[in-house]
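Team,

Forwarding the record for the chain on the shared tracking sheet. I've put the sequence and predicted structure together so nobody has to dig through attachments.
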Amino acid sequence: MARALRGPVVASRHARRRRRAAALAAVLVLVLLAGCSWGGQEPGLFTTPAPSVAPVPEPAPSATEPSSSVPAARPRLPVLAEALWTTADGNGVTVRFAVHAIRRSTGVTVLDWSVTPLAGPGRRAGDLVPSGTDLGLTRTLAAEQAVALLDVEGGRVYRPLADVVRQRFRRCLCTPLFVVAPQLRFGETTLLQLAFPPLAEGTSRLDVVLPNVAVVPGVPVSPLGITPVAEQTPDLTRPPVAGNPETGAKTWTARDAGGRQQTVVVNAVVAGRGLTSVVWTLHSVDDQPGLGSQPGPPLSTPPPAGVRVLTDNPASGPQLRVQGRKDPVRVRWTTATFADRPAYECLCSGLGLWSRGLRYGGGSAHLATHVGPLPPGTRRVDVRFPGLPAFTDVPVTWRTDVTGRVQTVEPSPDATWTYDEADPPSGWSADRWPTPLPDERQLGDYASRPERLLAALPGA
């Protein structure tokens, strides 16, 4: 089993009083709106939880008292959305990402999410993931993890809290991936946390943006002092079920003496109220130079001159063409700051060391490019990549805000955790929900400001 969080765990007396007061005053039932689901699942598609429920072990009957007097434990972990994804580091590990909650706490916002390794060549349940397994979430800038919370209506993008000390700018207030990844085991779910700044007043839902999978739209934000608790929990360790991509493959051939080739497949186009996710796969037909991906076709389009883009090899190329609409729907960007100068990040996959498997023929990387919204009711689009003929008449899957079973609520836990550099937090097992929240006394060591969502780069 994934072990409990390491590092100091303390109780905050004042925070406990506030949480309990808020919990007693609140009468809340989170009814999550219905969305789409399907039997198979392509890598990178966030879906609503399957109706299958993790088995609950029944206690053995006692010889001295009726079995009905020993109640079975009920699942408690809410699962709002989940996605399959396979690493591109050469290890070929298939994992299930899941989003569980966005919780308000004193001075901070917490994203609760998890990762469950499911399958890998020659691996069995209980085995550690291979050395060097990379979840593809590394961020070029501060705070280590390329995860964002998006306020569609307000045009705000929240990035993780980062250490204010310049020498430690890559440290997030989180369960750091460099600690978590080597301890992951097949068939075991590890609960993780990522802390963000406080939200704008009145914010009730946010989209969760991971770089290589479809956006999770409309995740409800729990009030201060409240934790959602599920009545039923899907089995996150169930085997992955592969679905079918929406298109066949198109081949890109480099214009050089070697004539190296890569193919592109569109797995899905997933539209929501804010962003539209183009989920696609890049495959190397033969060996490629460098890390297997280069700026330019079919991956990306060059930014305007003088514009600093911080995302490594951004998958910014895909565009959507809608019948009757003149302009294409392009990738979205966010503002950023680097060395006190304006810069920009792509809301898309950024290829780097995690996608090194593309160097070799047969390697694949599962990617996502998050573009703007589609007109309501759009059912089919053309998907265009630099250097390739268009994928025509590709179906669009519409997703409303995340769905789930009716959730009950309870007060947030009293226990808190503090980031200890000598012994960083490494996550919790799934049966530890609700997990502790960050201790407010450390928040002065971390900072992050909301960024703006952009439809295009300056000068584009």
